Amino acid sequence: MVGRECPQQDCQPRYFKIAPQELQSDSDDVGEGDTAAKSPDYLYCPYCGHQGGFQQFTTRDQAKWVQSLMARDVQRVTQEILRKLIYKPGHLPSVRHYAEKKLKRAVECDQCKAKYAVYGIAVFCPRCGEGNLGLHLQRSIETIEILLSAKSEIETKGGKEAGYHLLGNCLEDCVSLFEGFLKVIYSQALRTSFAPEHVRRCSRG
Prior knowledge:
The protein is an alpha+beta fold. It has helices at about 35-40, 60-85, 135-150, 150-160, 160-195, 195-205, and strands at about 1-5, 15-20, 40-45, 50-55, 105-110, 115-120. The longest helix is centred in the C-terminal third of the chain and has 34 residues, at about 160-195. Mean pLDDT is about 75; it is low at about 25-35 and about 200-205.
């Protein structure tokens, strides 16, 4: 997956990853008004919903990495020119290290089947812009159900106390899930109802 970063400074956590997508064929049934939304050249921020060109979502680390590659290439060409003038070239500048960040949750959109990864909970699909909050909720519930289904096996291996510990962890996960989704819903309501300056004040308060 390719790392992307929302260009909106007020957006948090901004960083996400998305799998590449093939260009649509001419036979695809896409209305004129849907071209921008469905084009692989456009993305939506999964956290705040901001829409922009694919290159607008280039991360800061990616930009610095490309700049270091360009600086090295310029230095290499310069040294080649000086070499022809019987000049002993020095060392080339190092290229900045770059690696994509690891993200907690991988998702496949129910609407367009795009695969992407985000921190925690995301509201929108970065490819089609459709709301995926319910999808995240369902995935989280399925994870808790899988843990609960292992209770008997855990009790067999570790006793009833281990089973109680598992139930306690699942209960904490339910509370965290409820709290997390309410925060996301509240933040999204603020973004759509008020100016960014007011959102910042309310979020801090």
